[in-house]
Amino acid sequence: MPETKDSQSVPAVETKDKRAAPTAETKDKRAPFTQATPYPHTRIAPFCSDSLLRGVRNEMLNRLHYTQKETDIFKYHQSGDLANLDGLPAAEQAQLPCLRQLRDSLYSREFRDFVSRVTGCGPLSGSRTDMSTNRYMQGDHLLLHDDVIGDRRVSYIIYLPDPDAADACGWADEAGGGLELYAREPNSWAPAECPEKTIRPRWNQLVMFTVLPGQSHHAVQEVCGEGRERLSIQGWFHFPQPGEPGYSADQMQQLWTDGAESTLSQIAALHQRNHGTQETEFMPFPACIEDTDIVSPEDCTELRRLMNPEYLSESVMSQVASRFADDSHIELAQFLKPQVASALQPLLTAADEREKVGNGHMAAHGTRGAGWVINGPPVVRRFACLQSAEDELGVQLMDIREMFVSPAFARWLAAVSALALRGRRGTVRRFRAGLDYTLASPDAGSSCTTLDAVLCLAQGNTWADGVVGGYHCYVDSGDADDASNDGSVYRAAGDDGILLTTPASWNSLSLVMREPNVVRFVKYVSASAPGSRWDVSFEYCVDE
Fold first, then answer.
1. Whole-prediction pTM value?
2. CB atoms within 10 A of CB 184
3. 3-state secondary structure (DSSP) of residue 231
4. In sequence order, which residues have a C-beta less than 8 Å from that of residue 255 and are 6 or more positions away?
5. Cα(108)–Cα(100) distance, rounded to whole angstroms?
6. Is the CB of residue 421 less than 8 Å from the CB of residue 285?
7. Going by DSSP bridges, is the β-strand pair 179-181/67-70 parallel, antiparallel, or unpaired?
8. Measured distance CA(520)–CA(473) in Å, rounded
9. What share of the chain is helix, strand, coil (3-state, %, to 5)?
10. Which tens digit of pLDDT belongs to each residue from 423-447?
11. What is the pLDDT of residues 21-44, one digit of tens each?
């Protein structure tokens, strides 16, 4: 994805008066901002005094403490809110003069007025400062979202990569770390499958855009390469607070009406995102499996063609049933018979190698393979889904899928889970390294109790610790009304909401009984993963 070319040069921070005052007419900046695509934004480089920014970078690296943060939607290292600088002891404040100067400059009346004129967003708060420093190291990322939280009005990012590095004026594509901007699908509020623009990290660069629900969708690519680091300051200008000039009791309505879009349209957009892209409804099983958990000799003969025969013996089935009854979940290693699994391995490896997926390579947007389509929208999920068998790999994966929908397999599941199953839905999925994930969004749950059966086919031995992602996580969603605008419910829950995590692995079947208030997600698969996370994922509705 090429870098955008709409950069503007506005030396914005003057060290002599510690204020960010524009030195060029804002009328020259307004038109490029409004005409930028996929939504209004601007890129200013150089942004401020080089010496001041070098001082800021030095303080960020040597005098701030960073905490690693990770949820379904992001992974990075972040400092505390720089709005709290005034509350630090005097001795600590004295160690951060450049950061304090930059913060005060950004939120000065002069610079806020400049931002207001360029973006046309109206008055901005001078008392509500909101900024922090972020360190994106190898593997760190931020998935697609629109920044709509609280009364945020304008989002900005200041880039501070190594100014003396050879790529200080713009990272290469393979380094990652770019800011991806997404358009909307035609006649839809859903973001497009692929970004329209990517802005690469560059020294002394500021990017800003107006925060708009369902429009300002963006993401930060994973940072690739050992030792590489994307250093930046992320912040927001907010609507005026009560008592400030320009405050209006109904000002938040601007978030829903800007762009000539009505509140009703936004509500429809939310409904479309949560319900319009749901997987198919549960397909009922034929009457022949109702009220029975008896696996017949004929069933065993059918299942033995693909399944490891050990899992069809009465003694092993009894052990599985006992363990599942105690824990409501179980992992069954070496689930496919060895001959079937061995035949799959070279086909999976060849697909990833042909498309340069994994082992440090970010999969290119649009990579999917014959017979695969992309499942979205990327505001809540992105992965490839097998629709038709167009090659030998597709034929073998579809064969396994047919086993998952068969009455014989349903009877085996009923026997080992002691659950009455009345319907199923599912698909074959491919989570491409450097691209794919699902979020713990409200629509990641189900209206009924389900038995989840996921056969994971992730090759390599680097998945177990979760560093490269790809793990399957179950979370107590609590009150779905607490979900953020981008749909994620997990990031507000913290570790206390995690119920179960299963790492990606080779030829392992995970069985989990899931209550309606539990949502699940597959963590973003890192470019450093050994390849794609492939799986056959089905839900079986439990008759309660």
1. 0.90
2. 18
3. strand
4. 148, 211, 212, 213
5. 12
6. yes
7. unpaired
8. 5
9. 30, 25, 45
10. 999 999 999 999 999 998 765 556 7
11. 444 445 678 889 999 999 999 999
